[in-house]
């Protein structure tokens, strides 16, 4: 649990940490028979004696601690700030097998020791009649015990899982001192390298940042990148060097050659996964000794995960949004949700809790389920929405388009260059607003005005700005006819072309006495193909045929 002494400790490269990966559990401790902290080794011996001398009339379950857990059970003279740690570890007996009687299950066992009562006098630690439900309970008890000791004697910074920023570790590098990343699941430290390189002017686009992912046939490319970077002062990343085990001695020699007279700006970054066997290392000793070794484990706990997620956003990013309060609230909710998902990974294949049938499903919920399964819009949604005949998938996509259209419009409150008329919940209000604006400007009576429609020969992409009067509209389709751009009038529809799209239309308000109805067809506009109650307006479109046709 305690990796090394804290005396003369530099937090940039060293950290005392009590791990939590040894399993959950709880213990019960009484306050009699206290043991002095300066000799914590006796605590372990006393624990062994009480377990071995315990009565064993009936063993319900056996808690085994195998040899792989023994290295984690190390004791230190904390009162002397870590002095004599190595000797204490050597003198401690091997804790290999424990067979306690299980009087209760872990879930019903009393809670952990109260730190305020246990550490009120920091020179003593009470332990008596320890009841150990299983192996994991003992492990977690010792982990939490030493976490409290380390936090009490050395400070909370030694037990926090937050790692220092990468630029602090980068300050210790040089052209002859590379950085060696020990990869952990769920963490990509190379993103920090790319981010720092962008700040210092080393980018892939500038061709002074090289990234080589090692694998079959990539060794010559990596050697060439190292030589080029050492001569011209570039950065180079070698990813997953553990995959090319036979090439690693060559890499060690290449690093020695390039360290003789390298460019001052030259930096080398290496990443590899840890060896599955702790007694075997595939990385040459020369590479490890010359490099700064960094491991960035995933944060443990909701608080640490939230801090890790929020660290990705700078103060400038938080203040860049016009709605700063709403943006911060949404960002915190997103980071909290991400932290919950990250913590749920510890449950493995157990997954999330499902509905156990205790919730009563009413008729509305059942109808909602049926409509979603049939890819249809539920009536409970349509009665609060706009008229539509689309399926659920297309309806939802159409709704997102409407939201995007309104969001772009309300961002600066200026009339768009071309307005999607079908995207309004109530298109009549927009058309009426055009007449009202013109009526107020020219002091015309509103009841003596009408709309003039002109179909242009332009597409939506060709319209760059809104007109001075009226508006350009798009998104209208014709049924039973089509608009001929060459002649500028209505023509018969083509074969298999049921709903041709109308070009951009220019709508402006005029007085009724200036309205020309010759060779015009009064074309009704509806929201949907069902027509009926979805009527919107009547546009006069030019035609060469009789209106009765």
TrEMBL record:
Residues of the Dynein heavy chain AAA lid domain: 327-354
Domain Dynein heavy chain C-terminal intervals: 355-546
Any one GO BP annotation for this protein: microtubule-based movement
InterPro entries: AAA_lid_11, AAA_lid_11_sf, DHC, Dynein_C, Dynein_C_barrel, Dynein_heavy_D6_P-loop, P-loop_NTPase
Pfam families: AAA_lid_11, Dynein_C, Dynein_heavy
Domain Dynein heavy chain region D6 P-loop span(s) in chain numbering: 175-295
Gene Ontology molecular-function annotations: dynein intermediate chain binding; dynein light intermediate chain binding; minus-end-directed microtubule motor activity
GO cellular component, one term: dynein complex
PANTHER family on file: DYNEIN HEAVY CHAIN 1, AXONEMAL-LIKE PROTEIN (PTHR46961), LOW QUALITY PROTEIN: DYNEIN BETA CHAIN, CILIARY-LIKE (PTHR46961:SF20)
Name by which UniProt lists this protein: Dynein heavy chain 17, axonemal-like
Organism field: Bombus bifarius
